[in-house]
Every structure is written in structure tokens, then in C-alpha cells.
Amino acid sequence: MTLRSHQPTGLRVGGRNRKPPVLPVLLGLSLVANAWFLWAWAPKAPNAAEVDPALAAATQGVAASLDAAPAVAAVAPAAAGAPTVEGAPPVEGTAPVEPVAVAPGDPKAGHIIIDGAVSRGFVAALGDEGERVALTASRLLNWNLDLTKDPRKGDVTDVLYRLSADGDPEVTIDAVRYQSKKFDKVYEAYRFQPDGWAFPAWFDASGVEVPGRLKGGPIADYEEITSLIGDGRGHAGMDFKAPVGSPVTAPFAGTVTRVNWNWKYNGNCLEMKRSDGSIVRFLHLSEVQDGIKAGTRVTVGQRIAASGNTGRSSAPHLHYEIKSSSDRTLDPLKVHGVSRRSLPEGSQGAFQARVAAVRAKWTAAAE
Ligand SMILES: [Zn+2]
């Protein structure tokens, strides 16, 4: 990872050295989360698909910093629709701090009592790394909660996480639990890899997957979704973190309109058009399937490419975007619909043991 210069400083919310405006902080967690995703995983110029080369060249410096710090684009619209949030202003130092293991890669438990901004609670409990833990954990919580609106003073959240051993900024969330006063409900996500699954996934305590999956999506095996539409950054696509070479299939029938344009930004890429006129794009591929070129008709499920890390991409992932015939960004979650996998029956025992072990760690951390 070489993206430290792309750190989303404009959106940092727990920084010790500055006091950001309270409202954007409260509103911004999910937005910031996505700034984080993109810093960690997204192409450095997420809008490059639509940018013609001349414009891209002219705005290159801006594009790079926008990707990392879309403070204006991200915060302003949210502030415009500012909900009243209880529990402000943030108060620091309200959460008990678990004495944490020091070795990178060791799981650490955190117990956070919300009193103001969610991210600030994480920082109060976990120190500097609390910010990125909050941002990564929010990817999971955001499937059930709107962290810009739903948190209430006195909500409690527990997290079990690991830092990368090599100094990589990536955080692995082993588990997160959020006790919401607003909904009088507990939301949980436990990372677990059932036998035969390509990657671990996150399940609630009943064994239902927490993140949604696109029905008929273009990539079957991916590690996680790291960016969604509407994450406040003007990012036009969904990002799927996946190893280089993961098969990409046509989610719809259609005709290929172009491949490998604007290579500097998009890397190997493919664009197709559906019969309704909408446009579907796949960026940062390791390769476009042999024989596929402009004019090729593709059928649903046909292998068209392999995911990669080409162009302005900071880590292996597939960027997938859908534009209406009038060039409006469509949300693949809405276009496709979403499904969730359930834990296979044979994995229930091991999973429940895992849940119990994690909860025991949280209990210890809260004492
Ligand atoms: Zn993307």
C-alpha cells in the first residue's frame, strides 16, 4: 500500500490535533467510512470511467486529492440534510479502555460507550487507531444502521479487531456489536469462514450474513465490498475486494461497447450496453476475456474478464458501475436486489462457539 498521501485528512474525525465541526462529524461517519474504503481499496480516480483523457489530465491533481479527501462533496450534502442528533457535543474519554495486546495481528477488544460522535467514542477507547477501526467497523454496521442518524447517547458498541502485521492500514474486524437505544436492538457481525467457502464472511448471531450480496452480480467470490454508491464521495461504482484473476461474468445480456479505454485510470476495462440503453462498466481488470471486443454480444453469466489491480487502483478489486441511458449513476444494490447467505448447517457448532468466545472477550473488556 502506498496510499498514505491519500489519507482522507479532510474527513478525519477523531484527530487529536483539530476539532472538526460537530455536525459534520456526527453526520460523517458513514461518509468517512467510505473515504477510508477508498483510501484503502478504491481506484485513486474513481470517476475516471467517465472522464475523458484530456479532462482527466487537466484535473489529475484534483482528482487524486478528491478521491482521498472529498470534504466538500461528502460533507456539504450531508450537512444540508442535517438531522438533529442527540448526544452532541462529543465528550472525550467516556469509555473504559481495554488494556490491549501490543503485537500487530493479535485481536484486540474495545468497549465503547457512545456519547457524541461514534468515531470519537472509538478514538477515546482505542486511541489513534480507533478512527480507522471505527471506519472499517462502520462498513458492517451500515448495513443495518444509519450511523449519521441512529446513534443515541449511551449506545454501546463492542469490537474485536486486528491490525495488519506489516503496518498496512487495513483493519480486520473480527466482530462488532452495536446496542442501539433507538431501535432497542443489538446488531452483531461475526467474521467466520465456513468450510468450503472461499473467504470468511460476517454473520449475525443467528448465522445470517450481514453484508448484502448482489443477486446475479458480476463477481461471485470476493473478500468484501469496500465501497457503495452514495457513500458521499461521488464514487460511481461498487468496489469488490478480490484477488487478481477472480472471474468476472456478465450480469446482464448486452453488447460490448468498448474495452481498455483511458487505460491510465481504468486499467484493463470493459463497457457494455444493455438493451434498455443502460451502460455497465468493469474497471481495473487483470484481463478482458480473449475475443471480447467492441460489438461482441454477451449473455448473462458469460465470463467476460478477470478482476485485477490495473490503472489507478491501490489494491486488487473490481470496480463495477451502472449508468442509466441518461448517464445517471444507478445503485447496483437497487438494480440487482440483494440476498444474504446463511451459515451452512454443518458450521453452526463452530460458529456458535466462536460467538461465545468473542462475547466473553467483550465481557472482559467491559469490566
Ligand atoms: Zn470503485
Q: Identify every distinct bound molecule in the structure, by name, code or SMILES.
A: zinc ion
Oligomeric nature of the chains: single chain
Q: How many distinct folded domains?
A: 2
Q: What low-confidence regions span 5 or more consecutive residues with pLDDT below 50?
A: 1-102
The run of helices and strands is: HHHHEHHEEEEEEEEEHEEEEEEHEH
Q: What separation lies between the terminal Cα atoms?
A: 37 Å
Largest sheet: 10 strands, antiparallel
User: Radius of gyration in whole Å, from Cα?
Assistant: 21 Å
Number of helices: 9
* Structure classification: alpha+beta
Topology (elements, then pairings):
Layout: H1 22-41, H2 53-58, H3 60-68, H4 71-80, E1 108-113, H5 118-126, H6 130-141, E2 156-163, E3 171-180, E4 185-192, E5 201-203, E6 213-214, E7 224-227, E8 238-241, E9 247-249, E10 254-259, H7 263-266, E11 268-273, E12 279-288, E13 297-298, E14 303-307, E15 317-323, E16 329-330, H8 332-336, E17 338-339, H9 348-366
Antiparallel strand pairs: 1-2, 2-3, 3-4, 4-5, 6-17, 7-8, 8-15, 9-14, 10-11, 10-13, 11-12, 12-14, 12-15, 15-16
Helix pairs in contact: 1-4, 1-6, 5-6
Bound molecules: zinc ion.
Outline the structure in words.
- The protein has helices at 22-41, 53-58, 60-68, 71-80, 118-126, 130-141, 263-266, 332-336, 348-366; strands at 108-113, 156-163, 171-180, 185-192, 201-203, 213-214, 224-227, 238-241, 247-249, 254-259, 268-273, 279-288, 297-298, 303-307, 317-323, 329-330, 338-339.
- The chain folds into 2 domains: 4-211 and 360-366, no CATH class; 213-336, Glucose Permease (Domain IIA).
- The chain is 26% helix and 24% strand.
- With 367 residues, the protein is α+β, with helices and mostly antiparallel strands.
- The two termini are 37 Å apart.
- Strands 7, 8, 9, 10, 11, 12, 13, 14, 15 and 16 form a 10-stranded antiparallel beta sheet that branches.
- The protein contains 9 helices and 17 strands.
- Residues 1-102 have low confidence and may be disordered.
- A hairpin with a 4-residue loop joins strand 3 (171-180) and strand 4 (185-192).
- The structure holds zinc ion.
